[in-house]
Amino acid sequence: HSLPNAYVRDPREPSYTTSAPPPVLVHSAAEFPPSPPLSPPDRRTSPRLSMAAAALRVQLNAHMAGMYTEGVVDEDTFEALREDGSAVEVARLFINDAYEIVDDIDTLMEQPEVDFDEVEALTQQLMRCTSSVGAQQVNLACMHFGDFYAIKCKQGCLVSLDLVRNLYCIVRNDMEIMMQLEDQIAACGPK
C-alpha cells in the first residue's frame, strides 16, 4: 500500500526523527564563577575618549580665540597663565574675588552717605584682580567708574558700576565655559 504523493518525503529535505530530546545539563554555581565587573575603558587607549578629548580641545581653542578676539581677556596675559597651568585656578579666584568686590562696592553705593574713599580702595583692588586675568574691558570700566567717584558723583558711579558689573559677568561666563571644557577634557584622561 503506497502513500499519496503529498505525503512522500523529498529525499533532498532533512529527515526528522522522533528521538528523545537532548538531556538538560545542570551545573552548579561553583562551576561558573560570576563574571568580573566591567572595568571602565582604558583612558590611555580608548579611541572614543581620545576623540572626545580632541573635539573638546578644538572647542576650547575656538572659545579662547573668541575671548581674545572680543577683548574679554588679553591674549598674552591669559596664554601665559594657560602655559604655566594656572589659568583655571586664577580664573576661579578672579570670579570669586571680583564678585565679592563688586558686591561690596554696590553695598557702599546704596548708603545715603557714600564713603568714596572706601569705594576707591575697593575699585583699586578690583582693578588688580581684573589685571591678573587680563580682563582689560573690566579694568577700563573701573577707570571710568573712578572718574565719577573722584568727583563724588553718586549717579555717575551707579551708571558706570552697572557697566563694570555687566562686563564682569561677560568675563565670568566665558571663564566658566573655559573651566567646564577644561574639566571635561581632564575627565577624558591624559593627553
Automatic annotation (TrEMBL):
Entries under SUPFAM superfamilies matching the protein: Histidine-containing phosphotransfer domain, HPT domain
Gene3D superfamilies linked: HPT domain (1.20.120.160)
One annotated Gene Ontology cellular component of this protein: cytosol
Top-level taxon: Eukaryota
Region of interest: Disordered: 1-46
Compartments where located: Cytoplasm, Cytosol; Nucleus
GO biological process, one term: phosphorelay signal transduction system
Principal location: cytoplasm
InterPro entries listed in its UniProt record: AHP1-5/YPD1, HPT_dom_sf
GO molecular function: histidine phosphotransfer kinase activity; protein histidine kinase binding
Job of this protein: Functions as a two-component phosphorelay mediators between cytokinin sensor histidine kinases and response regulators (B-type ARRs). Plays an important role in propagating cytokinin signal transduction.
Domain notes: Histidine-containing phosphotransfer domain (HPt) contains an active histidine that mediates the phosphotransfer.
PANTHER family found in the cross-reference section: HISTIDINE-CONTAINING PHOSPHOTRANSFER PROTEIN, PHOSPHORELAY INTERMEDIATE PROTEIN YPD1
Protein name, entry field: Histidine-containing phosphotransfer protein
Lineage, opening ranks: Eukaryota, Viridiplantae, Streptophyta, Embryophyta, Tracheophyta
